[in-house]
Amino acid sequence: MNRSRERILARVRAALADVPRDEEPAPVAVPPGRAATDGLVDLFADRLEHYRARPVRVGAADLPEAVAAALRRRGAGRVVVPADLPEEWTSRCEAELVADDGLDPAALDAVDGVVTGCAVAVAATGTIVLDGGAAQGRRALTLVPDYHLCVVDAARIVADVPDAVARLSPVRPLTWISGPSATSDIELNRVEGVHGPRTLEVLIVSSPGTGA
């Protein structure tokens, strides 16, 4: 069985040898267990851009206006939010805010986007992790709408995946997000928005204590 698997994989690698691929980010050594320093924030933002997400850095005092500005740029008229999203985050919003009370998939598909917080973020991979906790809502909120605006407190950014796992509970429903939803067909043509939001925008809040 193992020999057959290796033969198949060798044929696949040979067939794809001359196919151009997206440039992978250079590996960066990040010491485990570090706090959310400027270097980690820089790395996190860089990885988000690599995965075609849009990172925006804001101060805690500027967060309400940054949320409103992001929704204006998007042209979002109706936005769903978790029932426990901090009201201050959306206090400057002109869009209609729809608090989730168990909206069905059709209702979620009809809104222009969703605003959430996150549980933790991983600098080395540009990954955002949701666990259904405060300001995150249920998993469907971030899978059905086409646009996801996520607020990430810099204090929630850790160096790497092991650091993230150490902060997370294994009994909670975890959603790991690395950029907008995307996949490739058999000819390696990238298709976005197939199984999640087509657009991911991340507001990185520089001051501790303002995250979810």
From TrEMBL:
This is Lactate utilization protein C. Pfam families: LUD_dom. Residues 108-205 form the LUD domain. InterPro entries: FTHF_cligase-like_sf, LUD_dom, NagB/RpiA_transferase-like.
